[in-house]
Amino acid sequence: MQEHDWSRFLLRIPINADLKKIYYSFTSQEGLEAWFLRKAAFTSSEGKSRDPHQNIAPGDKYEWLWHGWPDDMVEKGDVLDMNGKDHFSFSFGKAGRVTITLKNEKEQIIVELLQDQIPTTEEGQVYFHLGCTKGWLFYLTNLKSIMEGGIDLRNKDVDMKNVITA
After folding, report:
1. Which sequence spans correspond to the domains of the chain?
2. Longest CA pairwise span in the chain (Å)
3. Rounded Cα distance, 54 and 57, in Å
4. Looking at domain 9-149, what is its CATH homologous superfamily?
5. Beta carbons of 38 and 156 less than 8 angstroms apart
6. Burial of 64 (0-12, 13-18, 19+ CB in 10 A)
7. Which of 42, 56, 119, 150 has its CA 20 to 30 A from that of 32?
8. Which tens digit of pLDDT belongs to each residue from 44-87?
């Protein structure tokens, strides 16, 4: 049996929606807040705040707030790379790097999420490999739900704890 690679994981989900719409959902404040985050603030490399409808760019910095978590739970990172159509990557705090790739397969768009550069310590294995896998499974399912049917599955109640939807 091959040893498990704790430094990375790959998730794929088909979404029956327009590729440009899916890409925008990852690369703008408005898009990310529609399915993923409570607040997604981006600052350009020149230090200017991005408009919520504006696409982000490599070199931008972000501060993200989550539904179901207090304001002191802030994720900070950098936009690393993007091509404007089907590829986007960002640093993900101590949890490594996340790369989103959109692919056409069988008349659907496949959203492929690779999280790599995960520390292989016990903390990295539990919190970042297992924890992030669980989180991304939910959020990618929520993206599909919103894109295909309009139903947002997120828990938005900060007082409701230990649920898989936050």
Report:
1. 9-149
2. 51
3. 9
4. START domain (3.30.530.20)
5. yes
6. buried
7. 119
8. 999 999 999 999 999 999 999 998 888 899 999 999 999 999 99
